[in-house]
Amino acid sequence: MRITHVAAHNWRNFKNVDFAGGSRLLVVGPNAAGKSNLLDLFRFLGDVSRRGGGLAAALEKRGGLSKTRCLFARNNHRGELALEIDLADGEDTLRARRQGRAGRPQQADHRPGDRDPQWPAPAVASR
To answer: Rounded to 5, what percent of the chain is helix, strand, coil?
Structure first.
């Protein structure tokens, strides 16, 4: 199974991040640009999906939702932390979305082909 698309709103130091995953993904940038925070997004997704893990455990591991959300979160996308990931295995695809706001956790899973209107379709397809 391969990650083909990732989108996040209010994750750590990113107000919005949205990219397609290809056969390789290189992360480069100057110090304090957010490379480690981007990699932590993948660790977070792993913690959420791990047996015995889950969303609450993954957030607690990072100090709670307030420590995970971007400082700009108050005014960006209604202050919600939102993550979306598309996975592919051959012709099978899966889209998962998690979102929550301090005091009001929410989550929704979407079937392949469903897309929330506030999340644009990826501009570049994976190779």
So the answer is: 25, 35, 45
